[in-house]
Amino acid sequence: MKILSALALLIGLNSYAAADITVPMNAVNETGVAKPMGFITISESPYGLVFTPALEGLGAGVHGFHVHENPDCAAKDKDGKAVAALAAGAHYDPKASQHHGKPWGEGHLGDLPGLVAGTDGKASYPVLAPRLKISDIQSRALIIHSGGDNYADTPASLGGGGARIACGVIKN
Ligand SMILES: [Cu+2]
Ligand SMILES: [Zn+2]
Q1: Ligand nearest 159 Cα, by number?
Q2: 145, part of any domain
Q3: C-beta separation of 87 from 76 below 8 A
Q4: Fewer CB atoms inside 10 Å of the end CB: C or N, the chain?
Q5: How far does residue 56's CA lie from ligand 2's centre (Å)?
Q6: Which ligand is nearest to the CA of 99?
Q7: d(CA 79, CA 17)
Q8: Is the pLDDT of residue 8 over 80?
Q9: Distance of alpha carbon 156 from alpha carbon 100, whole angstroms
């Protein structure tokens, strides 16, 4: 009896969790979408969304990582110059916080913990975004930046990560 009710509880809990989403990630540059770099799997947990990368071809170290508002990885012109993945738009900010912050803070909802790549250029270490559910991020884009992320707008805006180097569209 005990085993049966435990089983029923497990099945019940399972039906709450949304299915994992696997997002193909591609290198991006000012001419558009370049070559594949791997995948990021997004899964729901009781503590928020878990992003598990399986990526290669990154520079070693920490890379700023965010949900951006548009499901589009194309380059776009800014001040007459093409910018990689600019069509993805700004950091996802449905509550109009208008500032970049900590993944567990009050800033953009799309602010995620940075991804870490090893000296082999591979990233496999998962990160947790405690404020997000899968329903928040469908039809958006995941962006990886060239540099790190200090989770603030100072001394540089948007965490200081600079150029967008990889992008993937989060499908429903
Ligand atoms: Cu970003
Ligand atoms: Zn932000």
Answers
A1: 2
A2: yes
A3: yes
A4: N
A5: 24
A6: 2
A7: 44
A8: no
A9: 10
For residue 116, tell me if it sits in a domain.
yes
Q: For residues 43 and 49, is the Cβ–Cβ distance under 8 A?
A: yes
Q: What is the pLDDT of the chain when averaged over all its residues? A: 93
Structure tokens that stand for 38 in this block: 């791997």
Ligand 2 (ion): which residues have CB within 5 A? Answer: 91, 100, 108, 111
Q: Containing domain of residue 149, as a range?
A: 18-170
Which phi and psi (to 5°) does residue 163 adopt? -60, 150
One-letter amino acid for residue 24 of the chain:
P
> Within a domain: residue 118?
yes
Full-model pTM: 0.90
Ligand lying closest to the C-alpha of residue 111: 2
Average pLDDT of the residues in 93-105: 97
Per the structure, the count of domains in the chain is 1
In a domain, 8, yes or no: no
CATH number at residue 54: 2.60.40.200
